[in-house]
Design brief:
This protein is of the alpha/beta class and 276 residues long. It has helices at 45-60, 82-89, 106-113, 153-156, 159-172, 182-190, 195-204, 208-223, 227-250, 271-274, and strands spanning 3-9, 14-20, 25-31, 35-37, 40-41, 67-74, 99-101, 120-125, 130-135, 150-151, 259-263.
Length: 276
């Protein structure tokens, strides 16, 4: 029996799944982020990867030597880093020839996770960026060649974008801006007293990761019915629609079923972003 491992890592967490050659899922592993922002790995990226892969192998009751193939789809990783991946995973006795580092980012991994639907539009709304891609064998000569990745971070509503807008709304509300629960929620979560405290926090914590952290708080406010927070996610939803509808027309999907596959932390906001 051959065993295969899939690794999906981004700016929020790292997930690992082990399956056998029949497709039976055997075990999972989870750990912290691999991407730290600004084109760099997280400071503990190596530890997080090894912890998650090891956890999945132990849960599956197999060793690294039994792994026939391991596929890495991680933010900031490309095939040029295959040697580095081999060095990291050698600790778990995974053979270098078993390692594949994905060059296509999240979208090809999302396509695979959805069981290669055809035709399909993949939409990823992650911590630092949003992206879309298409797969269509009918309109293109080769399915693998048709996976077209288009990066559009701000337009598609990344966690950074939504978090930044939420912070701005929370600070402006007490000074004549639209009333919103975001002010109280952010003050509580960030341990500051008021909007002035939020302004001080914003000056001290400027990184994309700091802003992206606020997206989940904005989602809480939106799910509680806060009008300002709901508008932030509605705007992100409009951005997604504006990116995907032209793709569907281009793919001539009016008379055939189309799969839209979603991934990324922003989608955890649920109906706040998916309901028109």
């Amino acid at each position: 029996m051959r065993y295969f491992v899939g690794v999906d890592g981004g700016a929020s967490r790292l997930d690992v799944l082990v399956a056998d050659e029949t497709g039976r899922r055997l075990g999972r592993g989870h750990s912290g982020p691999i991407y730290g922002g600004n084109g760099k790995d997280h400071i503990n990226a190596r530890i997080h990867m090894l912890d998650a892969v090891d956890e999945a192998l132990v849960a599956s009751n197999i060793s690294g030597e039994q792994v026939a193939g391991i596929f890495l789809s991680c933010a900031n990783w490309r095939s040029l880093r295959s040697a580095e991946a081999s060095e990291w995973l050698s600790v778990l006795k995974i053979a270098p020839e078993a390692i594949t580092v994905n060059d296509d980012g999240d979208l090809s991994a999302l396509w695979a996770a959805a069981n290669f639907p055809d035709p399909a539009i993949m939409v990823s709304l992650g911590t630092f960026w949003g992206s879309t891609g298409v797969a269509d064998a009918l309109e293109f000569s080769h399915l693998t060649d048709s996976l077209d990745v288009t990066q559009a971070s701000a337009d598609l509503g990344s966690g950074v974008t939504i978090g930044s807008l939420a912070l701005g709304a929370a600070i402006s509300a007490p000074f004549g801006g639209r009333p919103t629960q975001l002010t109280e929620l952010l003050c509580t979560q960030l341990a500051v007293e008021d909007a002035e405290g939020l302004r001080t926090w914003a000056r001290q914590y400027r990184s994309p990761a700091d802003r992206a952290h606020l997206c989940s708080i904005a989602a809480q406010a939106a799910q509680a019915g806060d009008a300002v927070a709901l508008l932030l996610f509605a705007q992100a939803g409009v951005g997604v629609a504006q990116a995907t509808i032209p793709m569907a027309h281009y793919m001539k999907c009016a008379d055939r079923p189309l799969t839209i596959a979603l991934s990324g932390n922003v989608w955890r906001a649920g109906s706040c972003i998916t309901t028109p």
